[in-house]
Amino acid sequence: MDLETRIYLFTGFLESGKTTFINDTVLNTNFCDDETTVVIACEEGEVEFDAKKMKKHNTYVEYVEDMAELSEAYFQFIRDKYHPTQVLVEYNGMWDVPAFMNLKYPEFWDVVQILTTIDASKFTFYVNNTNMRSYLFQHCAQSDLVIFNRIDGQKKSFLRNNLKAMNGRAQIIYELNDGTIDNTMEEELPYDYNATNFDVPDHDFGIFCYDVMEHPERYANKHIRIKGKYIGKDRNRADGFILGRYAMVCCEQDTSLIGLLCKSPEWYDKFMPDEWLIVEGDTTMDYDTDLNMNIITLNVTKIEGTKPLDYEYVTFD
Fold first, then answer.
1. 165, 127 in Cβ contact below 8 A?
2. pLDDT recorded at residue 187
3. Nearest partner of 161 among 180, 142, 140, 138, judged by Cα
4. Residue 143: CB partners within 8 Å, gap ≥ 6?
5. Cα 317 from Cα 312, distance rounded (Å)
6. Which of 276, 264, 285, 278 is nearest to 307 (CA)?
7. Does the domain spanning 197-305 belong to CATH 3.30.930.10?
8. Which long-range contacts (CB under 8 A, 24 or more apart) does 63-67 make?
9. CA max distance for the chain
10. For 193-250, how does the pLDDT look when each residue is reduced to its tens digit (9 = 90+)?
11. Gyration radius of the chain's alpha carbons
12. pLDDT digits (tens, 9 = 90+) for 58-100
């Protein structure tokens, strides 16, 4: 079915760069060529839309002050007034994102992309504050693209790993304070992955597992010792089990599993779920046809029980 109107949802906190991003998209790219575009602004920050400049690109701005205004009737009003081919919604950072996704739109209208802007200089505060983390999770959980801006002085691995715990499929763009894209290589990891033998520090569990997933070639033919919880038998690999821990993405009831595939004919089914273990073994890299990618397997040579960590959730600082 062909869409009549595409909806692009822009999420993020006030002053996170949503308006700047939309302004740049409309005024400085060909995104609105041969389109009739409506911008629905649900909050007003320091940066404003210039209606006259927007109109030159066949783009019109409407303002919404209350979430209750967003309804099928409102979108029908927009449809009848402008007959847009695309709608850009600058969503209020304190409104409920799932509620927007559950709205009814006119026939042949649908949300095709969610884009989230984040001020990287405030990201640590958002992650560590329970209330703000809940909103941050809403912004990011279904995003297709996340733009971290103002990243000067911020660790990209900290930004990336926390985001991937909330939404593993999101693409990420990093912008420096001057607005240019940062394409530099990642900073050094907090451990030496070139070492043939190493223990994975408890506080680096998440960083390690994500790097294993993104760069498996770094971890082939290593001898590794790592602590985690027995999650259960692997569904697709004989003699396999998952050693993992959870990252808190919103609250203690909403977590994301981060783990490592282990293989042991002797011990793969001998433990209880959530039992804490120290696992030691040698790694191999193999191609997984289901995932269509290379993966690392830890072939276990030694397992011992251990006491739980005082704080069991994964962190990325």
1. no
2. 62
3. 140
4. 11, 114, 115, 116, 167, 170
5. 15
6. 276
7. no
8. 64/40, 67/42, 67/92, 67/95, 67/96, 67/99
9. 72
10. 999 999 999 999 999 999 999 999 999 999 999 999 999 999 888 999 999 999 988 7
11. 23
12. 999 999 999 999 999 999 999 999 999 999 999 999 999 999 9
Q: Contact at 8 Å (CB) between 206 and 245?
A: yes
CA distance 54 to 82: 14
Alpha helices in the chain (DSSP H): 18-28, 51-55, 72-82, 97-101, 123-128, 130-140, 156-166, 205-214
Q: Domain limits of the chain?
A: 5-174, 197-305
Six-digit token pair at 12? 């993020």
| Residue linked to tokens 């050693």 | 243
DSSP 72-105: HHHHHHHHHHH--SEEEEE--TTS-HHHHHT---
Residue 175: DSSP 8-state: B
Identify the CATH homologous superfamily for domain 5-174: P-loop containing nucleotide triphosphate hydrolases (3.40.50.300)
Q: What is the pTM of this model?
A: 0.80
- What is the distance between the alpha carbons of residues 269 and 239, in angstroms, rounded to a whole number? 8
